[in-house]
Amino acid sequence: MFEMIKEIVSKIKEDESIKETLTPSSDLINDIGLDSLQMINFILEVEDRFNVEIVYEDLDYSYLLSIENFMEFLKGMEKKVG
């Protein structure tokens, strides 16, 4: 899951080298610098790749403070769907 999220981030940021700097604790907003449009594109790409539908009301800001937090959010969604 982490590798796929790294792929998505590098695609959205249009920077392959960013994959080398990402860690599970990387903050999607402050470290990676996803702006609002990039965040929307990131969420849409995550929905496509992981075959989930993210309910924005459930997506708390704290889930964006690290890739690890975001992965936990996604795992919780998979349990609801599956």
Written account of the structure:
- By secondary structure, this protein is mostly helical.
- The chain has one domain (2-81): Non-ribosomal Peptide Synthetase Peptidyl Carrier Protein, Chain A.
- The chain is 51% helix and 0% strand.
- The protein has helices at 2-13, 36-50, 67-81.
CA-CA gap between termini: 17 Å
What is the CATH H-level superfamily? ACP-like
SSE run: HHH
Mean pLDDT, all residues: 93
The number of helical runs is 3
Task: Summarize the entry for a quick read.
The protein has 82 residues and is an all-alpha fold.
Note the main attributes of this structure.
single chain; 82 residues; mainly alpha; Non-ribosomal Peptide Synthetase Peptidyl Carrier Protein, Chain A
